[in-house]
Prior knowledge:
The complex is a heterodimer. Chain A is an alpha/beta fold. Chain A folds into 2 domains: 11-332, 3-Layer(aba) Sandwich (Rossmann fold), CATH 3.40.50.12780; 338-434, ANL, C-terminal domain (GMP Synthetase, Chain A, domain 3). Chain A has 11 helices and 20 strands. In chain A, helix 5 (110-126) crosses helix 6 (145-157). Chain A is globular. The A-B interface holds A 381-390, 393-394, 415-421 and B 7-11, 16, 37, 39, 41-42, 44, 46, 63-69, 98-99, 116.
Amino acid sequence: MAKVKDYIYRPEFExxxxxxxxxxxxxxxxxxxxxxxQNCGPYRAKMDACKLxxxxxxxxxxxxxxxxxxxxxxxxxxPFGFYSAAQSEIVEVHASSGTTGKLTVVGYTQNDIGVxxxxxxxxxxxxxxxxDSLVHVAYGYGLFTGGLGAHYGAQKIGAxxxxxxxxxxxxxxxxLRDFGATHLCCTPSYAIFLGTEIxxxxxxxxxxxxxxxxxxxxxxxxxxxxxxxxxxxxxALDIYGLSxxxxxxxxxxxxxxxxxxxxxxxxxxxxxxxxxxxxxPFGSEGELVFTTITKTGQPLIRYRTRDLCTLYDxxxxxxxxxxKMGKVKGRSDDMLIIRGVNVFPxxxxxxxxxxxxxxxxxxxxxxxxxxxxxxxxxxxxxxxLAPDRVSEIESIQKKVETEVNSYIGVSARIKxxxxxxxxxxxxxAVRVIDRRG
Amino acid sequence: MLVKQLSVFMENRPGRLYKxxxxxxxxxxxxxxxxxxxxKDFGIVRFIARDNDRAYEVLKKAGFTxxxxxxxxxxxxxxxxxxxxxxxxxxESDINVEYLYSFVLTNHNTAKILMRVSDTDRAVEILxxxxxxxxxxxxx
Lengths: 437, 140
C-alpha cells in the first residue's frame, strides 16, 4: 500500500491544457531568446551565424530553428562567459566536473534560485512532502546541486529540513531515526546502502518514521526501487536534474511510478536523433534536449544533455498534464556517474599523469558492491623503476589515490600492476569496464 | 663490501612467482637467496643469483620491473643471540633496519645476514669497528 500521498503543488501550471501551456512557453521562450541575444556573447554569435534574429522566434513551433548548446560551449566560456545577467545579479554559483578537470559553471540569479526552489518543491510534493514533514537531505552540499536543490524545495514547502549532507553512515542513521525523518533525499545507491546498514548498526527499521524519498543524480532501475522500498519501508521516487539546466527537480516521478513529469513551464524538453540532430516525435528514443525559459542568470537554449531517453505525452492518472520522460537509458558519451558524481576517464588519466612512477596504461573498473558504486583503477607501475622497498610502492599508490580524489571528487581504489600486464587494445582503447548491472 | 641483490615488483596473484623462477631457471641461473615481501596487492621479490648481472638482463628482457640494490652482508656464528648483537649495534646508532633476512649455507658453521638499513655507509663503519665480518658477493 502506498505510504506517500502525492499532491499537486502548483495545479495552475502542472495541469495546464496543451494550448495554454504552449502559449505560456512561447511567451517565455521569446523573452529568453531576446535576453540571451542581448546579453550573452556566445549566443549572439551562434544566432548571428545562423542569421537568426530574436524576432524570428515567435512561438515554440520555432524552437527547432535555434542552434544547439553543448557542454563544450560552456567550458569554452569558463568560468562566467555564458552569463546572460550582470555579475552583480548572480547570487549563487554551482559547478560540475568536466572532462579535462575544467568545471562547467552555472550562475544563478535570485530569480533562478526561486525557479529552482519552485520546481524542487513541486517534485517533493509528488513524494508527499508537506509542512509537517521532516526531510533529511543526504546529498552532498556544495558545488554539486543535489544537496541545496533538495534543501530549497523542502524549505519552500515549509518542511523541517535536515541538511545532513553526505557521509558518516552511522550518524545518518541515528539522525534519521532520532529526528523521525519522514523523507530521505540522496542517491539511490546510498539509500540502499543506508538500508542495508540499519541492521548492522543494531537498529530496527520499525523505529524509523520514513514514508518516502526522492532519489536521483545517477541512473537507477526499477529493480533497485523494489529493493529500496523493501529495505526502508518507503515509496521511492526518481528525481532528475542536471546543474546546467537547474539541478534536481527538472523532472520528477509521481506516485504512478512510471516516468518523470518535466516542469514544462520552466523547461522545454525535446528528443532529438543524436546523429542527424532532427527532433523526434513523442514516444521515440533519442537524446534529451532542454531549453530553459524562466532562468535569467544563465539560460540555455536547446542544451544537449547526452542523456538517452523517451518522452511520453499520454495522460497521467495523477492529474498532471506535463510530459513525462522515461528512465534515462545511458549517456551518449563516455561519462560515468559514480555515486552521483560525473566522472570522465580522461580526468582520471589526467590525474594519473601527475604522479611519477606510473605508466599511462590503466583500466577503470566500476562495480556495485552492497549497492554502492565502487571504482577501482588498475595502473601499471613504470617499468623502469627499481622497486625495493614496499613503502616506495605504497607511497606511489597513495599519491595516485590522492590525485584522483582531488581531480574528480570520488575516491577510487588504486591497484598498481606489473608493467605490460594491462591489455593493450587495438584501435580505440577500452579504458572502462562498468560492471554495474 | 656490499652485496648486490635484485628486487622485482610483482602483482600478488597466482602464477607470477612461477614465471619469475621459471624464466631464470630456463637460463640456468641459480638462486643463492630468495625472500618475498608481500602486501595485499603486490609483493617485492628479493633475491641474489649466482650471476646477478645476467639475471638482471634476462628479467629486463622478459619485461619484469627489476632493480639492483646493495645490501650489507655480515657473517655471524650460528648460535643464539648472534643476530641480536648485530641488530643492537644498529639500534644504538639510531640506524633503522628496513628489512633483513638470514640464511645458512651448507658446509658452513656460520649464519649470513643480509640487511638494508637507513644509512648504509655509517652502518658499515660501525660493523667494521666492532670487528663484525662483512660479506662480499664472492663469499656467497
